[in-house]
Specification:
heterodimer, A: 3-stranded antiparallel beta sheet, 18 helices, B: 6-stranded mixed beta sheet, 10 strands, binds adenosine-5'-triphosphate, binds magnesium ion
Amino acid sequence: MTDASMTPTDAPKKKSSLMAQDARTRKRNAAETRFRMYGMAAIAVGLLFLVFLFTSILRSGLPAFTQTVVDIEFTLTQEQFDTAESKMLKTGEYQKIFVNALSEQLDARGLDVAFDAKAIQRIVGKPGGTIRSFFLENPDRIGTPVSFELAASSRVDGYFNGRMTRDTLVDSRFLMATDLDLVDALEEAGIIGGAFNWNFITGTDSGVDNPGGAGLGASVIGSFFMMLVVLFLSLPIGVAASIYLEEFAPKNRWTDLIEVNISNLAAVPSIVFGILGLAVFIQFAGFPQSAPLVGGLVLTLMTLPTIIISTRASLAAVPPSIRDAALGVGASKMQSVFHHVLPLAMPGILTGTIIGLAQALGETAPLLLIGMVGFVAREYPETFVGGFTDANSAMPAQIYTWASRADPGFYEKAWGGIIILLLFLITMNAIAVVLRRRFERRW
Amino acid sequence: MNDMRIVERKVDTNEVKIAAKDVQVFYGDNHAIKDVSVEIEDKTVTAFIGPSGCGKSTFLRCINRMNDTIDVCRVKGDILIDGEDIYDAKVDPVQLRAKVGMVFQKPNPFPKSIYDNVAYGPKIHGLAKNKADLDDIVENALRRGAIWDEVKDRLHAPGTGLSGGQQQRLCIARAVATEPEVLLMDEPCSALDPIATAQVEELIDELRKSYSVVIVTHSMQQAARVSQKTAFFHLGNLVEYGETSNIFTNPVDPRTESYITGRIG
Ligand SMILES: Nc1ncnc2c1ncn2[C@@H]1O[C@H](COP(=O)(O)OP(=O)(O)OP(=O)(O)O)[C@@H](O)[C@H]1O
Ligand SMILES: [Mg+2]
């Protein structure tokens, strides 16, 4: 700020016109214009990154929400059922019935492609088992037309999603170039196509060779139960601690020490909390491994400093004259805090809490250490208590697990998981904004 | 200062309400009040005057123990109200403050409705038996604060939305609503226009019938108009204390004289 330096003027002041800018004013205005440009440039760069981030997330993640399915309707006669059930390899027999039905339908539409049973296997796997168990469970459907929706293999899915083209396809036991002719024919016949993948949202994690069946649902539940633990522990503890420190505690060396340590705690890497949780909650206290309860406890430790710091800041921002006013009419310290100071600090406390929760929701490293890795999210908890104690994963850990699996189908699922995670975070932030507005309007 | 009129008024000898003996106040190392002994009478308006920083507010805040809220502040000596030492370990400052109301230098209404501002004190002290009772208390207090006419149509509007002068009168109403025995006012009129000031002064005179009022003021005219007793503080010392008319007509101490004639301060 060079223009702040003073130049002593001994010479008598010249008469100046307000209509003409003097050199100093011009310089100051130019500096201001320049600064505005820098600011706008900075914002533009930030927005650019944001747009880039979102487009790349959406482009890579949206395909995870569709799944290529083979949609086929056929009738199983009682006779076919009986012969199949009398065979040694029963599912193999159903597989044959399925392949026959498929080729009949292709023929009926006048599409002429040569294929063998192996090719079908590469495209939809072996649905014989699925078909058999359906008819065993619903014997009354034998003899009536039944439509099956069968998930296509990850390679075919990739072909539909544009993850791979005819040119990039390398022949392997998973998919051959010639299979794509069959796929195209099936698409023309309306038998194969994309469908919204509800299973991705509601399902559980699948085996490493089945990205099509992988779902985030169970780990969303895991995250939900963890957030319950975090909210119900860290909010009361954090707010109570901050009120005590800010309003009641004497200012001495001990409280200074506590204060410094809370700030330090906020800067401790999350993996440290993870190993602490492993040692204390699982190995020492004997809580179940991979349980959202333990995850929630670890994340509570992480969230507490965030909540305490933001709560103290918003308490300190309440003007002291309000406290004086309350004390002046004979309110006790506690009344002055709970009737006057806390309501005024509420918007800040809520914002801090939700930011803390959002951080906790996205935290991955400590969860890996206490065993909440993705592959444990194989089933939903059966009871409410089980939600806390059954082995489960959480959204970010599930995403991490998918991203580290070999099949490119899982890579896409990881991006899809990130979209869901971001949706949750955006929702939480929106709630924070709404709550803040609501509380502010009361005054 | 030429138009300063000192109203001759009958000064009755009242009983002593507040008695301070050898009061010392320290802010850390800063010795803000030095050996102040004073007897403040009941049913009297006592004015504290003196140059800025001389400790008027500090001494005022000793009387309702608001200084307790300042960490570095230490008070020595005794202050008795009705013969009871308010710094005794048995005294709960909260109970004391219900008895000794205070109006602050800067208007500080709660960020709540006008009604709630006034009703808060009576509510926490259980002064109202029911809603109608509370309504009466609020109306009464607002009338005594000389602000009723301005706010009666918007009792549920926020108190912070009033003008500075209205806010201060609201604070006065809030203080009288709890029926204190002593009312401490720290420059209550510094944010008021002459009309509102006159109203507040009238109110102070009215309050004198039932309370002991202590008022800090920078305006000599105001001290002369409203008070019966005046205390002049200088650099933490109580220099002179006596009948207002005496202080203003023939001060004993040369410092008092130079202050009221405008030479120091
Ligand atoms: N909270 C505080 N902490 C430390 N020192 C203080 C505090 N409040 C007042 N003081 C000191 O005490 C002395 C007296 O202050 P006080 O506020 O009582 O003056 P005053 O007479 O009310 O002045 P004014 O007329 O300007 O309001 C001053 O020297 C001031 O610096
Ligand atoms: Mg003062």
